[in-house]
Amino acid sequence: MSAPKSNSQTLTLSEANFAMDSTPDRCVLLDGAGCIVQANDAWSRSSRQTDVVPLENAREGADYMAAMGRAALNGNREAGSMHAQIRKIQTGGADRARLEFDRPLRTGGVVRTVATIERVMGRDQRLVLVAFTTEVTKGAVRPTVIPEAGFSVPAGSRFDRLTEALEHCTAHAAVLDTEGRIVAVNAAWRRFTMDAGGDPSRTGVGADYLAVCSAAAKSGDGRANRFLRELQAVLRGERHTFTADARVGIGGEARPFRGRATALNLEDGAFVLVTHTDLDAARTPTPSTVRTAA
Q1: Is the pLDDT score of 9 beyond 70?
Q2: Strands 182-185 and 151-153, sheet pairing
Q3: Distance (Å, rounded) from C-alpha 3 to C-alpha 23?
Q4: Exposed site from 50, 110, 172, 288, fewest CB < 10 Å?
């Protein structure tokens, strides 16, 4: 849903504040110079990578209009359209605007971003409320195949059948939601955490896997940094899968693993499957295929 609208021509500042607090949309309030003066919780929690201008650190004080201008000069037509509409509203040429942007995904679907822009009446007559809603239109996708784990997931499988099949996968496996949080892990993943003396609250269901990867990347590990970037691309739907070798250790000596992240389009929604295959293991996965019923 979009931010609630006033019955009058323009929003008052109190109405804009109410809209930002009550909507799940990602919202920011811009001043006359185009800088962010207020952001709602949905904006702060999201990476906003699907927005027209994907600013990871767009906090209060950031010059949003300048960022859109730079993106437009670099060929981002959507950013150019946003920039023009916001400037038109700031200068009194319009009270509101609605823009839709479609981006095809490598997984076969389409991301549709709807941007609503509205003038807000306040002490600064050029205040503008910008709200983003993102929807993923699922399309036909290929089955997920992970050769080194001997694991295959037909498109459209159910989440519960997938998690049952994961229990028989010898690779450490976790399923992430589109925000990067762990929603399921298999027995091999749990055993590795326990044997390595790890904390299940940091690596189990409910944990923020992206935050763990980000912490490793910030430590200066170049491979962890690449893994983080590529995983974010899969979560955004820009890649179907990727594979990278890295060293993983939880409270003990790090061992070489092959990590893979693959997009899953299940009956229950969109997810990402992450596996860690131990390269030092003497026994390799049996080259059989695990099938999950749709």
Answers
A1: no
A2: unpaired
A3: 6
A4: 288
pLDDT on residue 291: 44
- CA-based Rg of the chain, rounded to a whole angstrom? 22
* Residue 209 phi, psi (nearest 5): -65, -35
In angstroms, how far is CA 202 from the centroid of its own chain?
19
DSSP 253-268: --EEEEEEEEEEEETT
Torsion on CA atoms 69, 72, 78, 84, rounded to nearest 10: 50
**Spatial CB neighbours of 45, under 8 Å, sequence gap ≥ 6:** none
How far is residue 46's CA from residue 41's CA, in Å, rounded to a whole number?
9
Maximum Cα–Cα distance for the chain, whole Å? 71
Q: Which domains are present in the chain?
A: 11-137 (3.30.450.20), 144-278 (3.30.450.20)
Cα–Cα dist 49/23, whole Å: 19
C-beta of residue 171 within 8 angstroms of C-beta of residue 275: yes
Q: Which one is predicted more confidently, 289 or 16?
A: 16
Predicted TM-score of the model (pTM): 0.51
Mean pLDDT of 90-115: 79
**What digits encode the pLDDT tens for the residues 191-246?**
887 776 667 777 788 888 888 888 777 777 667 778 888 888 888 877 778 887 76
Name, in order, each residue with C-beta under 8 angstroms of 100's C-beta and a sequence gap of 6 or more: 112, 113, 114, 115
**Res. 271: pLDDT tops 80:** yes
pLDDT of residue 86: 94
Query: In the predicted model, is pLDDT for residue 109 greater than 90?
Result: no
Residue 49 CA to residue 28 CA, distance in Å, equals: 15
| Separation between Cα atoms, residue 141 and residue 161, nearest integer Å | 18
